[in-house]
Write the structure tokens for this entry.
Amino acid sequence: MAKYIFVTGGVLSSLGKGITAASLGALLESRGYRVTVKKLDPYLNVDPGTMSPIQHGEVFVTEDGAEADLDLGHYERFLSSNTTKESNYTTGKIYKSVIDKERRGDYLGATVQVIPHITDEIKANIRAGSENFDIVLVEIGGTVGDIESLPFLEAIRQFRYEDGESNVMYIHVTLVPYMKKAGELKTKPTQHSVKTLREIGIQADVLVCRSEYPLNDNYREKIALFCNVSKECVINAIDAASIYEIPHKMSKEGIDRVVLKKLCLEERESDLSVWEDIVYRIKQPEDTVDIAVVGKYISLKDAYISISEALLHGSIANKLKVNIKWIDAEDLEENTPDKFLDDVDGVLIPGGFGDRGVEGKINAVNFARIKDIPLFGICLGLQCMVVEYARNVLKLENAHSIEFAEETPHPVIHYMLEQKNIQNMGGTMRLGAYACRLEEGSTAHAAYGEQLISERHRHRLEVNNEYREALKKGGLHITGVNPEKDLVEILELKTHRWFLGCQFHPEFKSKPTKPHPLFSSFIAAAYKFKKEREELEGKGE
């Protein structure tokens, strides 16, 4: 029987519930427990797949093809286990399931209500798949006190009643702000947040208190007294330079020992050496490398969170510090690329949807190709590489993706066959893991060290197979193909130092403990380019 830990948040959003849950999961996993993490989101969308990345952040894709909240990316980066379709539920998904059951007559004429039907559906989904784990961590999205999250909070309140005191616990993440004028930390927001949670019927067992400055014993005792928890259960989460420091910091606070004691689990020996090595590499790099990310959603950091983390992982693998230069693709439509890209060591073109900024991405591809700067294209990035090559090398006038120019005479990128008659937008793309066979001797094959790989997808369009022969004859090699449907997965330009585009999203599988091979290879190539350029500049002087 799995033990359940529920993580809620109070005072305000963006306190780091996801990182808290992921870090605790890493600590419990380091003690030999099988751990998974789930996310419950209070919005009415069935999933975040149709939401703007600028508003909600990146859409994370699981192995089995779920479009999910970006926090699932944090969970996977901190844990060895992967998330699934059963790891992320929204209010929209819960209500849709209940309404579908009501329409089928599953409730045998009952009046369908929030309690028990909605709360029972929530509980059933939390329990789904839990038999494979010792501990299930569940993060509740939103802030305690919001009306949207009430059904989720009521559902998790019932868990302790059903499963017993030793099998369920509640962790509340809150804020202890520093008032500069008064020169002190203030505990009142935490007190009020815990009071609101208690009014719902949930008594927090552990408080994770975010703060800029350390909580001394006086503050801890005050919080413990007014929030009805023991002093050892007041965990101070001070701002960290890197999220990968947090497991070690939380271990020093003793949160994993408190959790194991509360859940009546054996306190096995912990091994955090892998996290200590990661933090050491981050803090003690041997050199730096500058990477430009030419994107469409750079106004929100979370829109490319898996990209930035995968670049960090690639730099960790090479004992380097990566400096990311965020560039708005639209700026490259109005200005010459050299103004933005002349001083970088590598260029990455990430995925995206819609025609805004596409010509800027194509201009970035052209600049990097001509200047022989390492270039990495992901999903739409690969498609922009194909369009640029078709226009400027194969001389196919007005070549484009049919997504952006329906009347193009050369649709080098077109809709996949099964996507042509799709009506609904949500959950209908090519999603999840698909196989890819690599060409021996290719850059991709050298990076992976194996011939058959599997990567996660999220797209509707693909390279038009009618142009494959022309691309190959023109020098753009197809080095990765899906063996089942004969679709292009990876393209490389072998005359270039490092020029690779992939139709899939490798960033979703990268972890600090296991950097993705393509990101590691890309960072290595960018650093080599940097050193060669420095050597040439030195000779020029």
Q: What stands out?
A: The chain has a mean pLDDT of 93.
